[in-house]
Model the fold of this input.
Amino acid sequence: MDKVVGSAAEAVADIPSGASLAVGGFGLCGIPTALIESLLEAGVDRLETVSNNCGVDEWGLGMLLSAKRIRRTTGSYVGENKEFERQFLSGELEVELVPQGTLAERLRAGGAGIPAFFTPAGVGTQVAEGGLPWRYDGSGGIALSSPPKEVREFDGTPYVMERAIRCDFGLVHAKYGDRHGNLVYEKSAQNFNPLCAASGRVTIAEVEELLEPGELDPMDVHTPGIFVQRVVHVPDVEKRIERRTVSRADA
Done:
């Protein structure tokens, strides 16, 4: 089955306002930039995103955020985006912060058909007990906070129950992909991309190099094509560095 579509705009054309999106990448590494830009141009809003972070100001998911297209976001890190901070504290954005490993497992569980799981992460904190601010009221008060979660003991150790995440769409970026949707991510872009690919009911992959079926060694495939519904070729997609660090040469 040939899953290739002609453009990123065509690939995201049926994503409606209010949709939930699992978006791959970590920082600015491995983010589906072309798909995000096409969503911005499409004008959809009230989106609910699930991603490790929400990009930076004016790049990655930060582009949708700056345009006020995101209603709610679930993630584990938000430290590089001033507009994110402003919208959250002013009550314009609903935010669910999740321990990073828990977020990864919630996405993985969603893709595996597991409705919930127990983890020790967060036991004894507001993660389990509830009360974490999800949305402020714009005046310094809390308009919506996280609910308490079930805690159960196994062999004398308490664990908190976490629900799986399943999104309407998964958006991912891969180095290689074939027409059947088999994907290979390059180096650290293997971060959240495989998890988001599995957790989307409809998964759209942008690929830098489009290959013919049979050109990928099955042993190299990170995401099997059964998880992917659309593939778009983006050979010249722009990549940015979130934080450039250089060292001085020895005097």
